[in-house]
């Protein structure tokens, strides 16, 4: 038995999340490294990795609606913004220039941000159930522009463009996560919080995907008419997809700027939506681990590119000269999207699958 | 009343730029069933090329040369990045064009640099005075005339030439067209080239009276609500949608002062608001064909 990893003798084995020993070991090691990371790397990098964890939550959300349910959404930035401002308003300082209610408990403002964003998603869903394909993509793009206008103008909530406001300062059951203490620094606390949230979000998404709802999503993605004929209620499941996806986006938006400590309404533009699309396409659409991989790659990309000028001296690190590292970064977004879609449509996840299958059969190629 | 007439005239002027952009989108959509998000980049590329060519060639020749060059660029992009994707889901191709847009736009922005680049047009901000004290800017008249000429040329091309017929056939049914000896690949290439050239002209006219800057691509995005409004596969729809959106936008810009709670730049987002309203009533736009699904 032990030497036949694909032999299943019960339904429980068939349905298990981690169905092989190697998966269990790999996930265990990953988690152990993740938990140990605060003591292994410096705080600045840790903050970036924490940001990548939050971004991954948002990418998992977009993956639910676009990767699993096949409804193309360019409006993710809009839902991120709703989450970010809901959380900032609930947790904000009541005496500050911008709206704030002073409830700093993360167990309150994080779900609230998710729920408000999910409500917005459910409100948008009727449009989505009427439209298909590229019409839907452009309508969701319209959401980003209209939402962007609203948050730019509503300066009592958002601080206004160029000024911005503070993100929520998290407190967990009275324990302040936003300042360092004798045991952990601020960045270490925030990183651990975000890691835990990412694990919860990923598990929830994975379980959703293999439930009745998830199978309905996949059916709609693959052929919506066939799904409808089989008895999948299209309107209902598209609404659920938008709602859940926006919930994830709202939670991610609420946490996205906690590490940096400041955010500006102009951040929530089309480019942000495109970045999230890039994450799930580069990582691998329709897989949770792909979304996480893509989010980490895209978030860490600027940091990696800042190292490029030391290897290629003709690329400058100053934004006034051309070609510079910022231009290279933006070009790479575009080129990565194109290259992955043409050569490896299943993304990083697909590369991993191919590698795995190669070594599984090694030294035989078939 | 004077304000009203002037803003309608301005709206028709800017609307004709939207119409040109929209036509590019619709031509590509009809040929390949894909919305090309690369159009903003081509528009910017065209306008920047004109700023470089206007010195040696003069405005009109420079514009023509830039249109041809941008068409060539679009042709190359189609061959490199879009042709390998035939048979893949349209969404995938649309996202590829988004990637192209990002990459091309960075290169073009680097070509703009930090200087103020102007297209060197003969109109600037000069105006003609009409009876009743109404002023109409010469550049808007030029935009409308250019658009009208281009639309007429496109009409003749699609209606009376063999190539135009081939393009119409390919957009109607690719396999049947192939069976009749139409090279569908050539149709794809030609539609991208045409759209690129139209975008270059539109970009140049959008920059007339101002300067070429990175933010010009936002104008091209306004063409998206335009084509959704008119219907993705309708050429007349793109023209009518463009004029309608341009007019609504200019009217809002004129009268937004009376609704201050909407915020200062509401006219920038009015195209999207109009699009939402129309789509709630007609999911396939005003003139788009309703999709019939066969199982």
Short summary:
Chain A: It is a multi-pass membrane protein. The complex is a heterodimer of chains A (366) and B (295). Chain A has 366 residues and is mostly helical.
Q: Could you characterize what this model shows?
A:
The complex is a heterodimer of chains A (366) and B (295). Chain A has a domain at 37-269. Chain A is mainly alpha-helical. Chain A contains 16 helices and two strands. In chain A, strands 1-2 form a two-stranded antiparallel sheet. The model of chain A has no long low-confidence stretch (mean pLDDT 84). Chain A has helices at 11-15, 21-36, 43-68, 76-91, 106-130, 133-153, 155-158, 186-209, 212-222, 224-229, 234-256, 270-283, 288-305, 308-311, 325-343, 347-361, and strands at residues 171-172, 175-176. Chain B has 295 residues and is mainly alpha-helical. Chain B contains eleven helices and two strands; from the N terminus they run ααααββααααααα. A two-stranded antiparallel ribbon of chain B has the order 1-2. Chains A and B meet through helix 6, helix 10, helix 12 and helix 15 of A and helix 4, helix 9 and helix 11 of B. Chain A: Keywords: Cell membrane, Membrane, Transmembrane, Transmembrane helix. Chain A: One of its GO terms (molecular function) is branched-chain amino acid transmembrane transporter activity. Chain A: It is a multi-pass membrane protein. Chain A: The chain crosses the membrane at residues 21-40, 46-65, 72-91, 106-127, 134-151, 190-209, 240-263, 275-301, 331-353.
């Amino acid at each position: 038995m032990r030497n036949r990893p694909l032999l299943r003798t019960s339904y429980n084995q068939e349905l298990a999340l981690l169905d092989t020993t190697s998966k269990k070991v790999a996930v265990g090691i990953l988690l152990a490294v993740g938990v140990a990371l605060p003591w292994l790397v410096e705080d600045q990098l840790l903050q970036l990795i924490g940001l990548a964890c939050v971004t991954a939550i948002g990418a998992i959300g977009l993956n639910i609606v676009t990767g699993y349910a096949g409804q193309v959404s360019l409006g993710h930035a809009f839902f991120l913004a709703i989450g970010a401002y809901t959380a900032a308003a609930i947790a904000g300082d009541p005496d500050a220039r911008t709206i704030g209610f002073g409830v700093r408990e993360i167990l309150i403002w994080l779900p609230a941000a998710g729920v408000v964003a999910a409500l917005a998603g459910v409100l948008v869903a009727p449009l989505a159930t009427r439209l298909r394909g590229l019409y839907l993509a452009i309508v969701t793009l319209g959401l980003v522009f209209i939402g962007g206008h609203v948050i730019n103008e509503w300066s009592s909530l958002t601080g206004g463009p160029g000024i911005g406001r503070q993100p929520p300062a998290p407190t967990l059951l009275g324990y302040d996560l936003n300042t360092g203490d004798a045991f952990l620094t601020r960045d270490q606390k925030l990183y651990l919080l975000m890691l835990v949230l990412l694990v919860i979000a990923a598990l929830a998404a994975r379980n959703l995907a293999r439930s009745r709802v998830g199978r309905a999503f996949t059916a709609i993605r693959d052929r919506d008419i066939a799904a409808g004929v089989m008895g999948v209620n299209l309107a209902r499941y598209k609404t659920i997809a938008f709602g859940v996806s926006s919930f994830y986006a709202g939670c991610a938006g609420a946490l996205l700027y906690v590490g940096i400590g400041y955010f500006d309404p102009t951040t929530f533009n089309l480019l942000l939506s495109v970045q999230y699309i890039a994450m799930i396409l580069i990582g691998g659409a329709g897989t949770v681990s792909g979304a996480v991989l893509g989010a980490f790659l895209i978030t860490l990309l600027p940091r990696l590119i800042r190292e490029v000028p030391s290897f290629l001296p003709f690329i400058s690190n100053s934004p006034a000269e051309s070609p510079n590292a910022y231009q290279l970064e933006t070009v790479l977004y575009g080129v990565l999207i194109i290259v992955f879609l043409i050569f490896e449509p299943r993304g990083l996840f697909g590369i991993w699958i191919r590698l795995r299958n190669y070594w599984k059969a090694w030294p035989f190629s078939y | 009343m004077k304000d009203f007439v002037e803003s309608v005239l301005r709206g028709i002027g800017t609307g004709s730029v939207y119409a040109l952009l929209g036509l590019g989108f619709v031509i590509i959509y009809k040929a390949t069933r894909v919305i090309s998000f690369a159009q903003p980049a081509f528009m910017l590329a065209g306008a920047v090329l004109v700023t470089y060519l206007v010195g040696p060639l003069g405005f009109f020749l420079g514009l023509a040369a830039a249109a041809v060059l941008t068409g060539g660029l679009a042709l190359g992009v189609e061959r490199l990045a879009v042709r390998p994707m035939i048979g893949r889901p349209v969404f995938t191709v649309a996202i590829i064009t988004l990637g192209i847009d990002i990459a091309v736009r960075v290169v073009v922005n680097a070509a703009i640099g930090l200087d103020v680049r102007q297209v060197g047009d003969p109109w600037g901000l000069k105006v003609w005075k009409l009876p009743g004290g109404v002023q109409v800017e010469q550049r808007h008249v030029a935009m409308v005339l250019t658009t009208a000429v281009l639309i007429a040329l496109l009409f003749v091309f699609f209606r009376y030439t063999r190539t135009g017929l081939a393009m119409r056939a390919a957009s109607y049914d690719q396999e049947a067209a192939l069976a009749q000896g139409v090279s569908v690949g050539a149709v794809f290439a030609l539609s991208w080239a045409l759209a690129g050239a139209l975008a270059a002209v539109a970009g140049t006219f959008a920059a007339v009276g101002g300067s070429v800057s990175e933010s010009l691509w936002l104008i091209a995005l306004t063409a998206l609500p335009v084509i959704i409004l008119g219907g993705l596969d309708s050429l007349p729809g793109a023209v009518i949608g463009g004029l309608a959106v341009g007019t609504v936008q200019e009217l809002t810009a004129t009268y937004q002062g009376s609704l201050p709670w909407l915020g200062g730049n509401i006219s920038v987002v009015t195209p999207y608001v109009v699009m939402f309203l129309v789509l709630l009533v007609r999911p396939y736009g005003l003139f788009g064909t309703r999709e019939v699904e066969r199982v």
